[in-house]
Amino acid sequence: MRIGLVTTLQTNIGDDLIRDGVCALLRAALKTRDLDFVSVNKHHPVRVYPAWHPLRLAHAARLISTRKAGRLARGLKAFSSHNLFEKCDMVVQCGTPVLWPGCSRSEWADLLWYAILGRLHQRIPVLNLAAGSCYPWERQPASIESPDDLAYATAMLSFSRLTTARDRLTVRLLAPLGRVQTPLLPCTAFLATDARAAPRSGDGPVLINYMAGGGHYDWDQRIDSAQWHKTVRSVVDHLAHRHHLVFLCHDTREYDLARDMAGAIPRVLPRNTAEYLALVAGAKACLCNRMHAAVALAASGTPSVAVCTDTRLLMVETLGLPCLYVKQAEAGLLEATIEDLIARRQQERERLTVLQDLTRQQYLEWIMGAIR
User: Fold this and answer.
1) Res 326: pLDDT
2) Nearest to 185 by CA among 131, 259, 246
3) pLDDT value at 202 more than 70
4) What local confidence, expressed as pLDDT, does residue 312 receive?
5) Would you identify the CATH topology of the domain 195-352?
6) DSSP of 49-64, one letter per residue?
């Protein structure tokens, strides 16, 4: 069976963890490991076409932009029929923000959703799993305000046999657009490994995942990056007297920032998901700026406190873990929260293990109901 995946490749290990969770669910739902997964990087969606395709050739020659290629493909749907998803038995968009200001202008909206999935959904299942939101924390919308974004969100819902949301804001924004409420389930990265198989001692290091400014974007919220650096440095200095610390990095920038923050503390930069999960196994707790660091650690039964600048933070809330907007994340509060998680780590491990079992069961019920 051939399954197309709309995903992100070779950018962030968090995306690999999301995809691993999706693939594990599909193998369980379809009761086979004999699946042929065809991944298309949504940030380079023109690669859904073979190398000889006119749209890909024109894009490679810089004669047209990705947006223009998307508009051409959308307008000439027969022209877009030669693509990697055409012979798939199912296509799944793997957990990602689907709603944000200007989401209708994403690279993949026209090229993948409108031009291809808008046609294929009539004969094969299209699933949109672990859809999320990404709005400034201080400006969370009551509804989708842009007409173009609203039309795009409505199209995604109508093209998908199943959409699941990883945060409550996504559920609320999609609620007026569909016939049934979108189920709220933790991100599929929570299923990238089995918490029952992780080391049970939880006596490893306390992990620190640090990003400048507390997240990917400032969103014009006047976030003080220097203050966040000072806050994390204070937390690190205090925790280092009582615990072994390790900086958990998702990219080379974070690896360099960790060295500048506290050069004497070890740093790790996992190269793949297997290495990532092995390195975090048995950790006591973590302070996370990457939301998928918190989700992946939860998959191993390790609790975290998450700090971010936008509504991606809400995907950690779905796991029942503490999460703070960066302006509210004071050093004393973070230190106390981490120590509380460490003191309760066995109870948290048990809670997360039960939640993981329930999450897997709920996903499988929804998926099997959609593909029957």
Assistant:
1) 98
2) 131
3) no
4) 97
5) Rossmann fold (3.40.50)
6) S-TT-HHHHHHHTTSS
The structure tokens 């640090």 sit at 210
133-158 pLDDT, tens per residue?
Answer: 999 999 999 999 999 999 999 999 99
The three state secondary structure string of 207-243 is EEECCHHHCCCCCCCCCCHHHHHHHHHHHHHHHCCCC
Length of the chain counted residue by residue:
372
Pairing of the two strands 285-288 and 206-209: parallel
CA distance 284 to 338: 9
**Distances in whole angstroms, Cα of residue 91 to Cα of each of 30, 40, 121, 166, 184:** 14, 10, 9, 19, 21
How high does pLDDT run on average in the chain? 94
Amino acid in position 66? T
Question: What's the confidence (pLDDT) of residue 78?
Answer: 63
Token duo for residue 171: 């559920």
The CA distance from 346 to 356, in Å, is 15
Do the domains 2-184 and 195-352 sit in the same CATH topology, yes or no?
A: yes
Mean pLDDT of 161-187: 95
Domain boundaries, the chain: 2-184, 195-352
The reply to whether CATH 3.40.50 applies to domain 2-184 is yes
pLDDT at 76 over 90: no
Integer Cα distance of 195 and 288 in angstroms: 19
CA quadruple 299, 305, 307, 311: dihedral sign? positive
Those residues with Cβ within 8 angstroms of residue 331's Cβ, 6 or more apart along the chain or in another chain = 231, 234, 235, 238
Please give the full DSSP string across 24-50, using - where no structure is assigned.
Answer: HHHHHHHT-S--EEEEEETTSGGGGS-
For the cut 80, the answer to whether the pLDDT of residue 77 exceeds it is no
